[in-house]
Amino acid sequence: MIPVLLATANAGKVREMQAIWSAQGYQLRGQGELGIESVAETGLTFVENALLKARHGASQSGMAALAEDSGLCVPALHGAPGLYSARYAGENASDSENNTLLLQTMAAFQGQARAAYYVTCMVFLDSAEDSSPLVAQGFWSGHIGVAPQGEGGFGYDPLFWPLGSERSAAQWSVAEKNQVSHRALATRRLLQLLAERQAPQPLSESD
Question: Which of 12, 118, 130, 169 is a plausible cystine mate for 125, CB 3.0–4.6 Å?
């Protein structure tokens, strides 16, 4: 197994992502177990924040690093909570507090106005000095329910109903989420980029 630092202190993310990456021969280690503090997320985009976290994790651990920045976007709220999903209700807000504020904000919204999507941006660095980071994004569409449902998952999962599903994301198993979620799609794309970089294909005569 190839050890890779996962630049997050979120145990839910470590649990979900390890299930996919271990099948590809990678052992993800959350930065918390190595005593690495989180870096300030000062970027103005998901990709900037993911790169900040990956660079910090790689420099502190001396390992290859994987980082992701993700959020829930509601088009009717101009993309909010978006980049500030984890701190929507305040700097140290809990998932429950964030969910409660989102429900209150959307109390009068109906139909298409409750549409939402999860987005994630993942970055992989071979080292802190890696000048060609690999970047992949994934999206998961759905809508915001009118009340929390389910005890699993994390973040806004109790409120997020994936497109066509009769259950909230908090009622899905990790295995189910790892088939279609934003994080699963970004991971597959990133693994494909890793494979291409490790075994570049020669150009054909027509290229």
Answer: 130
